[in-house]
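Researcher: We're teaching a course module on how sequence relates to structure. For the next exercise, students receive a sequence and then see the predicted structure as tokens, so they can try to spot secondary structure elements on their own. Here is the exercise chain.
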Amino acid sequence: MSTEKVRPTKLKFKGEKTKKKRKHEDTEEGPSRRRRKEDGYEAPETWVLPENANEIRGPTFILHPSDPSPICITYDSTRGRILLQSVDKDKTDSSETPSVIEREPTDVSQVWVVTRVAGASTINLRTGVGEGKFISCDKHGIVSADREARGPQEEWTPVVFPDGMVAFQNVYEKYLSVDEVAGGQLALRGDSEEVGFRERFWVKIQSKYKKEAHDEEKKRKEGLIDTSSLDEVSTSKMYQAWGAGRTVVPSGDKKELKKAKKEGRLAEALLDRRAKLKSDRFC
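Model: And here is the predicted structure for the students to work with:
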């Protein structure tokens, strides 16, 4: 007796055409892609301009509209220094020249990673290559990227203007600018008192981080995010961290912060501690 199983088949009428099976997923040019285009959909990695300072986060591309060619802030991991490079250095005569705001990074060294503590107005700019160094500015206006820890000198406050351009203010209330040094070379300085052409930059972020900022703001307005419940350890890391994220918080500060947290005034205590850290560092 044969043990071969009988394959089940669907009954068909004679002459009925066989329909081909269609995959459920749409192709790249299928209906779902067309719908996304009609709905104004943007790919998460699309480079866009921020509309406010809170949107500046994640991978960031910073350009200056210099003449004759725009330049971008780049990090040379081999020499451990910041460079200002022309975005047209690889351009051929036959290639088209896009506008400044249409530019996108072409190398990972042109991308900086922006981080911030929740609820803070300041940001940190970390290299996207190498060991992760932060852009800092000392009291003399010297800008560098050679520190692995974040402190007051690594803090920047982005100011977004109505035209979409951005200025970066440091802890000394001076602005980041493009300056011409010996030999006609361009370098970054951090000692400008006012914002002019040299202090204005075009900043581009990725679409998914802009959406993330919008979602956070919506939740905040709806009361779904408690801005007063800041984590004291993660906040302290911004000022006293090194190595693999180790944190040192003086025992007296720990007691004060815990007491403030119980009394519902943690945010105020954190601001006081931040001011104390700044004064201790610069005195």
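Model: If you want an answer key for the exercise: The two ends are 98 Å apart (CA to CA). The helical segments are 31-38, 207-221, 232-237, 251-262, 266-282.
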